[in-house]
Amino acid sequence: MVTVSTFTSVINQVLPEPHAGLLAGILFGTKATLSKDFLDALTTTGTLHIIALSGMNISILADLSILTLLRFVSRRIASLLTVLIIIGFVWFVGASPSVVRAAIMGSLTLFAVLLGRPTWSIFSFVLTVSIMLIVKPSWIGDLSFQLSALATLGIILFGGKSAVPSKNFVKAFIEDSLRVTLSAQVFTIPLILFVFRRISLVSPLTNILIGWVIAPVTALGMASAILGWIWLPLGYVFGWISWVLLEYLILMVQWTAKLPFSSLGW
Q: Which residues of 22-49 are buried (b: 16+ CB within 10 A; e: fewer)?
């Protein structure tokens, strides 16, 4: 049976550390192989969210699916297929509160497209959060749920994705994903400050520097994991292309974490 560990095993074979651990974190939310020093650097730069499965992962997955499928099928069919892909992803990685919420909201938005209705983003957000808290009220005190919900609200209000896909696939994919990454920080930063008594002063800079990398790394990393599972040499091809971007991401996080007054705590 194919599991997350199946693909992380492929990633570990085609990439060195910390690149392999970082890619596994971005794709599947696993943090087991990441060093404490690098985790501290992610925390200092306010970029720990890139290795936590959340609405950002679902948004990138949906963007990639829609932009790819629209080249071959109508928007309605592409939306339906993307909903099925999202459901399959949640089943594969495990139904954590943040992933379930993001998946429900993403699916509701795509179903609105299928029905020919406007995108009911705020309605979907309120409905999803309400249903989840009715089913399990204790989630209201769960920090990951709070961060995920606030990140999604930021994406809804400030994500501003273009309704008309660009003819330049790569440009559209990177621009949309960078916009999602930055807008997700708007409401989560105050909560992190309140809970951890620590705020990253370099978070905007770091997120701008690495935000554009997350989308192509996700696409290349998933291709490396899946194709490498089929035939390992194919995994090496895409894996080493993603290594270049992962190396850049690691260097930017480590560099900005070492800047004077990169974060304040009390």
A: bbbbbbbbbbeebeeebbebbbbbbbbb
d(CA 69, CA 71): 5
pLDDT at 112 over 60: no
The chain-wide mean pLDDT, for the chain, equals 81
**Which of 145-149, 157-161, 228-232, 236-240 has the lowest average pLDDT?**
157-161
Token couple for 256:
């900005």
- Residue 225 clears pLDDT 70, i.e. is over it: yes
* Nearest-angstrom CA–CA distance, 93 and 90: 5
